[in-house]
User: Fold these one by one.
Assistant:
Number 1:
Amino acid sequence: MNPILDKLLPRKKILITCGSGGVGKTTIAAALAVQAAMEGKKAIVLTIDPAKRLANSLGLDQLADEPQEIKADMFPQKPPGSLSAMMVDTKRTFDRVVIKYSHSPDASRTILNNRLYQYMSNMLAGSQEYMAMEKLYEIAHDYDYDLIVLDTPPTRHALDFIEAPKKMINIISDSILKWFLSPTLFASKAGINILRRGSEKILSVFDRLAGFKFLHELSEMLLLMSELLGGFQNRAQEVYKLLRQEDVGFLLVTTPQKTALEDAFFFYKKIQDEGLPFAGFIINRVHPNFLTSKDPYGNIKKKFPKELASIETPLLQTLDLFQKMNALDQRMIQNLKKETLLSRKGPQKIFYKEIPFFSSDIHDIRGLIDLNQWLANPVQ
Amino acid sequence: MKSDLFLKKKLLVITGKGGVGKSTIAASLGLLAASQGRKTLIAEINTQGQMAGFFNKPPLKYSPSLLAPNLYGINIFPKKSFEEYVLLQIRFRKLYSLVFENRFVSYFIEATPGLAELMSIGKIYALIKDYDLVILDAPATGHGFSLLQVPSVVAGAVRVGPLKSESEKIESLLKDAEKTTLIAVSLPEEMPVNETCEMAQKTKSQLGLSIEAVIINQVFPEPMPPREIALFQRSKKQLESDPDLRPLATCMEAYLNRYFLQQDHIQTLVTTFGEKRCLKIPYQFNDQLKKGDVERISALLHSQLEAMD
């Protein structure tokens, strides 16, 4: 097997695929992990997406919340390495985080049984992103994979993902309600006294808006959660460091469409600003170039068989359409290259790999392996 | 169902996975409704305001602006809606600043599950009285669903107070099939088709809402009549044997593979939702859709809606 990953992403142990929805992120993530297994590595792909087709193509009914090794007979030939896959279940990961960081089993039970917690653990802004980070950290530390590929949740707001751990802490540590119902806890903090003067009014405003009962439940939950804060904070620090390690590579997956490219470029700038290690762009679904010769149309006209005259026009029109789309795609890709080079910080090498618009869907590991051949393509 | 009937509703919710072209469809339906004399508003939620690009207008803001004759657009920011709502309840700007422009409270607002969704859908509810029709370009599937789900959840979670009564009012609007219609936008590809079918089940079982129509976007048109397709398939080898003609054959073959694959996926949607509820929009072979494209899609939707019964 051609060592594609070692050439393209040398010494990377964690790959994180990012991009907006519908660009094929999950498929690319799976393909990279398959490639690693084919190159003799022990690899795992983590996804947030409950992608049934991905599970099926790996020979599983469903992706589980813990690593599952893919049977070697799913591969067209036995891989020298191994491949595992798992899906991050936000709710279950959140529950486990609560159990892990609680001071006592009683405390964790109270949180887990809180009605609002049950609802919130799925809906809280950024919880999906936070749990993806949590899981990544756990897999990186508790297991011995040579390569971990994390497929991130589709996000238009790229920062949600990078800032998730920080945001989660802010929400819990700084929430007014915690301060409110447990003033002694934070009495020493500067500025609190100024705030306290307004507290009566604040209480009455919330009461009028939402009703006291709701308020009470919410504050109870946040108070309980504050107990987990120490654990959360330490973990956030560790995740922050982990993401900036040299063996991590962020990959941006995009299509050549304007909106997807804009999202990708926005994300690229964020990655640069945050000082995260960026590896390259994978541009999916590029319309292929079918023409090779310089003056194809002249020869086509001359040589087209007379007996097929009734299909000459549709054949020409279709070819023409695809050539136009290919030219358009190439222009968009050139723009991306130009813009990213202009805003690049530091001398790191960025790759741009194009994957053509396939005329069939990918259904199995063979399809994923075929896709990888485009990553080896040296022309780009 | 005739299109005039279809557009007689008060609220059209356009749902779908990211990247399927929801905004294009929302813009086209908006144009159609407006051209039929209905004062129409297209609402985006917390976007970069790209909807206006279809109409060559600057990005949408929080206050409605004119996109085309009779057609308006708004970009709803949950934070602003929250401010508006609270001010309506407490009536004192100073008190609002004291309470809500405080860092601690901002975090609280972020932490309250579903509050952003509730405030967005609440704003839509408030806007409905000013327009004949509001078209909501909902966020991608998962989020679109929580947007529709949140009023009933809040109505259940909060026991008394204005938040409860507001939620109940919004909930009854969403569940009123006379006023609200759910439209799914999908692509003739495996994943979006599966998601559309799952979404339909979820909205039906959890919200009691059914998807009125599925708009299948980016459909490859039939490249030539079936007889010619057969002729091509018989003579493919002959064309491939000549290097000058090979690109023609390779390209058409790739096109046909995709075309037939799409037809299979379309069939899945047709089986699930019924032939007449599946509208098809051809693939637009250009990159940035402009006003002319939206007008063309609008006309295509019009004729297909007319054919619904």
Number 2:
Amino acid sequence: MAFNRKQIIRGLLVCVLFFSLSAAAFADAKVLARWSQTKSFKSDLGSELDVRATYYSAEYIEALVKQEAEKNLWTENETEQYKYQLLSGLSLDEYIPIHIEFDNRGPSMHLAPFDSFLTLWAGKNKLTPADFDKRFNFGFQGKRDGLVFFPRYDKKGKSYLEGVKTIRFAMAGAISSVTINLSTIDFVWDVARDNPEALYKGRAAARLELDRLIKRIEKLNAEKRDLEGKLSELNAELDTITHRVEELQRQ
Amino acid sequence: MKKILALVAVVALVAFAAPAFANVNPFMDVPMNHWAYDAIGQLAARGVLSGYPDGTYKGNQPMTRYEAASAVARALAVVDMTKASKQDVEMLKRLVVEFKDELDALGVKVDKIDSRLAVIEERLGGWKLWGEFRFDAKFGGNDNMTDPALYGTSGANQFNISRYRIWMRKYIDDKVTFTARIRENRRDNATRTERGLAFDRYYIDVKFPWDITATIGMSLHDWEGDDGLYTDNDAMFTDRSYRGFYFDKPFAMGNFAFYVSRPDEIGAADGTTEPGFRSPIEHYEIGARAKFNFNEQLWLSLNGIMRKYDSNVLTSLNGAGVEKEDEHVYWAAAGVNFTPSIALKAAYYGQEVQVGDTVGTETPKSFQAIVDVKQDALKFTSLWAEYRSFDENFKAWTDGPWDNYGAAVTGTNLGALYDNAIFFKLNQKWTDQWSTFQRYLIANARNEIAGVSDNTTNWTFGVKYNYTPGLSFELVYDKIENAQTVVNNDDSLIRFRTHIAF
């Protein structure tokens, strides 16, 4: 059976497309693996613990959104909706979120207060969690996962990540008897080239900006109401005093 | 997405919203002799309840039930956890139960309060307990009568609870935590027929200024484990319990550690080093370490441990003995992570050991290189490939690095017996429940003498089933040939292990 030129070219195109897609999928998998790292531990008695920590870099979020869209065969709208919900939940404009996942096949882990076991080193700044999934405070065996939020900005509004090349997320070894002999469980990420701003493009970004502006309007309105209340109190007090002064003057 | 929604749900569940102040009921419906007055008053007096923005609670003045509930709710929102005791939490719970309907009406869900109280209780609720034990059915190949029984299975077969441990921890306050562990006591009994309970960990962790944490008491730190330098049992120099003071100072990309310890088993005659229980000879042990993570790919650690013996400690190498020389071990370890799943690790050890009364001290070296590939990379299996070389007289302090199933495969006199060793371990996780693993070791004898000494080999095949996260079963076949280079020092073992954790 002989192939004609068209068939050969078509075949080659299919191959090129296949390898391009495979290469792209491989690149995405590499990105996902880089920012979502797993450490496995085993005790001398046979207990096992897997700890996965995920840093939400811009390229990780893009790869995750793409992966979910491909997996679920989403339309562009559905993809944008997913991205919007993901970004809203992560609050990247306020926090540095890290997702933690435990698979504990060993003695119960008692992590309360969970924030006391966690540190994020960003340059010389030692950050403690601003918020975290409270389920971590309850003892558990098996799987448990949730988000931990570290502050992104200092009191002056300067980003903790500004000028920082590498961050270290340290979890105390005392989280589990499997790791209790270790100082810390470290997750290290080079964040110098991460650019969260790049995420804020498209319709999802517009919706997020709208959310922010609505929140800001609400805040300003509350301040306005507060000031108006104070002003009316002052006016009432002035009226009372003026009234009393007039009474005294009449006597 | 589910994770985000779950987080939002949990935050909403646990977060405590201060309720809007209720409409004031003109009728004072909480009688003045009601226990709630006392309860709220006592909590306020002890400083547990504070911060009533609208002054809802005004001491012993008549209250409506809504006012009382509001006082409880508002106060709970700002409860000072550092001042609350177990009794206070109980009292708060009673108040919550008493004013459940009013709290519901105020828009405060009682189950949310329960969650909050549970969090508070977790934080200060006394002791946290956890533990594990394992039950082994061992079928040894040899009977110790005509052939050596290397796994300690005298009589060839054995059923026993090989180990059990119960941990306890008390969060004392923000700065101090107490931790202890009870296990079976194997002290002073080489045959281990006499057993009992003993604390083999009891220490406090204290947070000091300048971000220094001290561990004081009987504890254990495993620096080789920190660097991932072994996968089996055991570390060569750390992973031993000690009595002493351990200090840790973290910095941005690593940490410094320092410790000083001293065994307190004065007069212990037994020279066997049973971690945590026996001190063969009196000495101070001083260790220091610095670990640096340069970036995602590179790390380096520098470590040193010195043993300084008391002046009255003599070597036992001849009848008279001479004063024992101090011993040291130093090592540098480094790693390159090509990807999060593929790493190359290496370590170089230098040791100063006394090898005889007349020979004096020697400084043997050892080199170790590891390729560590996780299953993520190869998909079907993980791979640990390790090479170690030893100078003559190099000696491990803790255990032999591959003495994994209760037999001394190589023992600790590594340099005296071997030139080098190559070790492979593969692990395949098939599902969340099922996994299999294989091990292979060949340790090349330093002096091969026909019929007397030869290379040691050890191989293993195992399968593990996690029935629940707390219960697993493991079936292992292990085979040793020429243990510690002694020809025909062979044995094999089939072991069925039940491991329970709670």
